[in-house]
Design brief:
The chain folds into 5 domains: 2-71; 76-160, Alpha-Beta Plaits, CATH 3.30.70; 193-469, Nucleotidyltransferase, domain 5; 480-487 and 507-518 and 635-670 and 678-694 and 707-738, no CATH class; 527-629 and 754-768, ATPase, nucleotide binding domain (Nucleotidyltransferase, domain 5). It contains 27 helices and 30 strands. The strands form 10 sheets. The chain has a 7-stranded mixed beta sheet with strand order 23-24-22-21-28-29-30. A 4-stranded mixed beta sheet has the order 1-2-3-4, with helices on one face. A 3-stranded antiparallel beta sheet has the order 7-8-12. α12 packs parallel to α15 (406-413), α21 (610-629) crosses α22 (670-680) and α21 packs across α27 (752-768). It is globular, with a radius of gyration of 34 Å. It starts with a helix and ends with a helix.
Amino acid sequence: MKIARERKSSVLASNAVHHRVDSLTGIVTLAVILGANFMQNAAWLDPVGGLLISLMVIKAGAENTLAAVLELADRGIDNEVKGSVRKQVQKAFADVTEGHEIELRDVSGLKSGQNYLVDLELAVPSTWTVEDVKEVEDTVRTRVGGKVRGVRKVRVRFTPKEVPAPPKFDEFIPGDVSAKSSPEPEDDDHDHPNHAIVIKSDLSVVSEAKVDFDADFGAKYGVKKGVLTNEAEGEVYAPVAMWLDALELVLVRLRAAGCPVADIRGVSGSGQQHGSVFWNARAQPALRSLDGAKTLVEQLGDALAYEFSPNWQDHSTQAECDQFDAHLGSAQKLADVTGSAAHHRFTGTQILRMRKRRPQVYADTARISLVSSFLASLLLGDIAPMDCSDVTGMNLWDIAAESWSAPLLALTAGGDVDGPAVAELRRKLGDVRMDGGGSIGAVSPYYVARFGFSPACRVVSFTGDNPATILSLPLRPMDAIVSLGTSSTFLMNTPAYKPDPAYHFMNHPTTKGHFMFMLCYKNGGLAREKVRDRLPPSSGSQDQDPWASFNKHVLETPPLGIRDPAKDRARIGLYFPLPEIVPNIRAGTWRFTCARDGSDLREHAEDWGPEADARAIAESQALSMRLRSHNLVRRPDDDDDNEPTTEGRPQSLPPQARRIYLVGGGSNNAAIARVVGDVLGGADGVYKLDVGGNACALGGAYKAVWALEREGEGESFDDLIGRRWDEKSATRRIEGAGFRDGVFQMYGHDAGVLGAFDEMERRILRVARN
């Protein structure tokens, strides 16, 4: 039996059991015979002896049968084998250079027949190279395979030693395993990546690293697309502790990628706009005394008054939005003061809801940070001030007065404008830094000790993700960025301040007196995918582009679906698989037609087919952007920068954007780019902006360069970055996309089809408002 156990052989074990049972049955038989000879009236011993022998045979047979059956199925390795593996792995470390730095975190695996398939998790310093870990892997595999009987395969997984051990099952695929073959990936920078990028003064990229919340922390925090949801309340939020872990992990990966961290002179960046973090009274002392030997979560986990941060997709604050819109007299007056009407995701409405729904959390809150200033606080080792641009996404900041709006603070805090509640909220919000450049302090000693930063590294104020996006290139006035991801965003740099409840105006993050005009839509790529999936595939191979049929119908359908000007009506519509932000309309699909001049608007009750929908959805999404931006643009010939105009275009052009830069997954689609140019124009063309994987991170890096290297406060961001920016490598003009004379005019200006589109939205709002 000893040999059988050593060999893990059920055949040898069966033979041993057979001999053992024979011996035991012989002993029982002998005992029965002796008992019968020495005891009177012992006839009962015979059946009892027979019963004992039968039970012994049954027990041995059952146990051996079960063991043999289990041999046929894969199962986890037992503790004895794990102990042997651990012993040999530890011995292998002694044969490796700097083996004392290696940590064995886990041993697992399968027993398949007589073979063991072993999985090891080893933690090594993040600075080790691929060659270093290859030496470890070879040594460990050779030792374990040669010394532990039955081991046929050893697989080694390496993790950074500086990062806490991941949770069990962290490699399992989360619940949504649907195929996503779209070239418009569901990759909204609002939610998914934590991206770090390091550049030189000449703007060339040195190193990059990325953390994906779902892939890296989905198992630990239960997030999907970076967030948690409470559908009953309409709440969407993210665990703040996950962001603490993510910051550490992205810095570990940055070092592992070979980044010369000690040479970094300045740090800036961006955070998801509108989101808020609620600190308690322990936060500031904890930030100022961070210990490089411990993780951020260990030291800041109990510094939060609320463990979650509301996400931009949250729609739980309709009652609070109604209060904000009414408080100054109307939504227009609120927009005049703060740059925007009330929106679910804006910080002011979220704080008001927090005070009403979770009064103890609000009472325990010592400071409130935006996500951008929260991230800056972590790097600074102190509560950082809010940024001049990001603060204008709160519905609390008076843009003209450059101060907190006392009436809106009174609404949020509850009480009189001069009362203690408003004074307390002012303290919670803190100061705002109106200069987008310059340093707010040196990086915390925590990052010097833990990650090797230089003590001289400076922290520059962080801004929101949307303001940072317009810093990813020297965006001149009247240039626009259109982000075509799952959601869609329209951004423009403009000196004109013309607020309206339908869109947003925010301070420009670097240029005083300029503003960022912004439109945000929930229904972007997802809505286009819904139409795409209704179309029959184009003829061709099985592996063709899934957008081929959609693109074919977009390009082959004339503008507005008008093939015969004498009899065809213009087709427009709204395609909202999700409740929309702009306009504030619930989920649904509506189709309308009108005359070419925009008159005689009628709802088209019947489905006109996915072939027509392909062009209609692309045009209608762009028409919504044109409707809300057309009063901000001017004729390109009126530009005051005296730059030469593009050759070959008409002498006098209608008002439109000068250049349109496309980013996001949809920017890869030439058909959609063509429609964007048809509807929005682009006197100097439509360009695909290629700034790597994350425009927000790059904009933050450019901001750091400008802040630390500008020649006094007079040198603008556009001047400094414009001289160093390599436009040819960062942009590509999309052939055939841009202003087309005759086509652009078909959509109208204040009237025409654009006016009909406006009227269509108003009609739908009356019956389908969120």
